[in-house]
Specification:
103 residues, 4 helices, 72% helix, 0% strand
Length: 103
């Protein structure tokens, strides 16, 4: 009995020391997970994580197989892709302006 209690105690300590970012997403615990994650991330990263959660749920991506860190990484890749698209669109507009003689 003492060994079982010791094992449960050690497991609890190890789980409490793990970063909430390493936990898998769960609909049942995401609110408390996000509260813990908010303390760990800077505000822009936290907003990106929250926005990515909403976007991926809307796209019906199975989130329960992903950790919060993986979801955030997915959001960073998506944001970088959007930034590249935006820059290329602005670049095209800028190039067209160069053709005008008064600029």
């Amino acid at each position: 009995m003492k060994k079982q209690l010791l094992l449960v105690g050690v497991a609890t300590i190890l789980l409490s020391c793990t970063s909430p970012m390493q936990r898998n997403y769960s609909k049942e615990s995401y609110k408390t997970d996000l509260e813990a994650i908010k303390e760990e991330l800077d505000p822009p990263s936290f907003l990106l994580l929250a926005g990515t959660l909403v976007r991926l749920e809307f796209e019906e991506v199975p989130l329960d197989t992903m950790t919060y860190a993986e979801i955030l990484e997915h959001g960073k890749k998506w944001q970088a892709e959007q930034d590249r698209k935006r820059k290329s669109e602005l670049g095209d507009r800028h190039d067209r302006r160069r053709n005008y003689p008064y600029h």
